[in-house]
Specification:
With 444 residues, the protein is an alpha/beta fold. It has a domain at 53-353: Metal-dependent hydrolases (TIM Barrel, Alpha-Beta Barrel). Helix content is 30%, strand content 22%. It has 14 helices and 20 strands. The protein has helices at residues 72-81, 100-113, 129-134, 157-166, 178-187, 197-200, 203-220, 232-239, 251-255, 261-264, 277-289, 304-307, 324-333, 339-353; strands spanning 2-6, 9-12, 15-18, 21-24, 27-31, 41-44, 49-52, 54-59, 84-89, 117-120, 122-123, 141-144, 171-174, 224-226, 245-249, 294-295, 370-380, 399-409, 412-418, 421-424. The strands form four sheets. Strands 3-2-7-17-18-19-20 form a seven-stranded mixed β-sheet. A six-stranded parallel β-sheet has the order 11-12-13-14-15-16. Helix 3 (129-134) links the parallel strand 11 and strand 12 (141-144). The longest helix is centred in the middle third of the chain and has 18 residues, at 203-220. The termini are far apart. Residues 60, 92, 148-149, 174, 270-271, 298, 300, 316-317 line the site of (4S)-2,6-dioxohexahydropyrimidine-4-carboxylic acid.
């Protein structure tokens, strides 16, 4: 099947140009094909912008084991609506994805359920180095250096040294220092104020753990990605770190700070916690200066009932995949940055960091994972319109200008905005993402 997308302004790496794009099967076959090119379907995209599909390298889609909160069917529809064509999912499902067999099980479920492309990290434990060393069909290893939702935790130095020394897949980590968090939790043990979450999971906890992880990665010369950076001090660490260290920021750490607890309460209880307005500013500046190169969501849904439990029982995590491109397009409209910058942070860089083959750019021979956006469309985020199974958003009630209006996954149109509503082709199936060996540690 050939699809010709005509008259769009197309984000091609560093520029936006008005060219046609021809999709043939699963790939982009031609940029600016000859005028007489024939296609099975022609899409007139006048007035719209075509961008590479968004790649979210940090999501928690809860399947298997926690499907009352989220599942791959709902989450992947939320992705399609939000312009996200590929996701990498975290191992803290039940059971934890800590062996090849358990990874294969998740891949099999995704093959049946997901309307967008998928990959799954393998989780580190204190005793599965052999599984980590031999793992295939995965982008990399996730270490919880500090504990979060679930029971994955590796914080003993000897175990961490072994993982960095003896494995070759890229590693990413949740960096909050367990000892600091536990000591702070003791100090605030009688608190029922959710704002104290940011005093328990404080700046120091994030700094100590990120410093420790960067030190491990540098000594072992191991490609390493710092997940969800939340503080200005971590940005300074990352800026002076070795080149094989990359980092990402999440929308909630850019847009929310401790002043928002009063309005949003436990809805913005996250690990790492949200921090101050100064940290927001430092994180935006880090993106703009290239110190942080990836934006990812850490989409971590819990039901509203769970979130409404009193502090400290209310769980940490919030959903974001279906709105984060729109949140960023709104910033483009405000003049904060450009579409090529956005495509770099949300598509090209996650593809490079995780060795994805043929993804992250609009170019001949690359996969036809594409999103068409309308920079003039204004819409309000409403809980009742969310595709995520938990059906709420911390941005409920916010009106944004700039929204995805059509999404293609491997050449198949999976979503379009039509007659004022979302239309999905739920028969579309995403593909398993393929990873090259480029950014891997070479074992001696
Ligand atoms: O707040 C969080 N929730 N942070 C994480 O790292 C995990 C996530 C979850 O799975 O709920």
């Amino acid at each position: 099947m050939k699809t010709l997308i005509k008259n769009a302004s197309v984000t091609l790496d560093n520029e936006v140009v008005e060219v046609s794009v021809l999709i043939d099967g699963t790939q982009v076959a031609a940029i600016d094909p000859a005028d007489h090119t024939l296609a099975d379907l022609t899409v007139d995209a006048a007035g719209l912008h075509l961008m590479p599909g968004v790649i979210d390298d940090q999501v928690h889609f809860r399947e298997p084991g926690l499907t009352h909160k989220e599942d791959l069917h709902h989450a992947s529809h939320a992705c399609a609506k939000g312009g996200v064509t590929s996701f990498l999912e975290m191992p803290n499902t039940i059971p934890n994805a800590i062996t090849q067999d358990l990874l294969n099980d998740k891949l099999a479920i995704a093959g049946k359920q997901s309307v967008v492309n998928y990959g799954f990290y393998i989780g580190a434990t204190t005793s599965n180095v052999d599984d980590l060393r031999h793992a295939t069909r995965t982008p990399g290893i996730k270490i919880f250096i500090g504990s979060s939702t679930g029971d994955l935790l590796v914080d003993q130095q000897a175990a961490l040294e072994r993982i960095f020394a003896e494995t070759s897949l890229p590693i990413c980590a949740h960096c909050e220092d367990e000892a600091t968090v536990r000591a702070n939790a003791q100090r605030f043990k009688d608190s029922t104020d959710v704002a104290d979450h940011s005093n328990i999971r404080d700046h120091q906890a994030a700094y100590i753990a990120t410093k420790r992880a960067i030190d491990l990665a540098e000594r072992h010369e191991h490609p390493f990605h710092v997940l969800h950076v939340s503080t200005a001090a971590e940005v300074d660490l990352i800026a002076s770190a070795a080149e094989l260290i990359t980092a990402e920021v999440c929308p909630h750490h850019l847009f929310f700070n401790i002043d928002d607890y009063e309005r949003l309460g436990s809805l913005i209880k996250m690990n790492p916690s949200i921090k101050t307005a100064d940290d927001n500013a430092a994180l935006w500046a880090a993106l703009e200066s290239g110190k942080i190169t990836v934006i990812a969501t850490d989409h971590a849904p819990h039901t509203m009932e769970e979130k409404r439990k009193p502090f400290p029982e209310c769980p940490s995590g919030l959903p974001a995949v279906e709105n984060y491109l729109a949140l960023m397009l709104d910033q483009v409209n405000l003049g904060r940055f450009t579409l090529p910058q956005l495509a770099h942070w949300m598509s090209a860089e996650p593809a490079r960091v995780w060795n994805m083959k043929n993804k992250g750019r609009i170019a001949e021979g690359f996969d036809a994972d594409l999103v068409l956006v309308d920079l003039n469309q204004e819409r309000t985020i409403l809980n009742e319109e969310q595709e995520t199974k938990c059906r709420w958003s911390p941005w409920h009630g916010e009106t944004l200008k700039g929204w995805p209006v059509a999404t293609w996954v491997m050449g198949q149109q999976v979503f379009r905005w039509h007659d004022g509503g979302c239309e999905f082709d739920s028969n579309v199936r995403g593909h398993e993402i393929e990873f090259s060996g480029e950014r891997r540690k070479r074992l001696g």
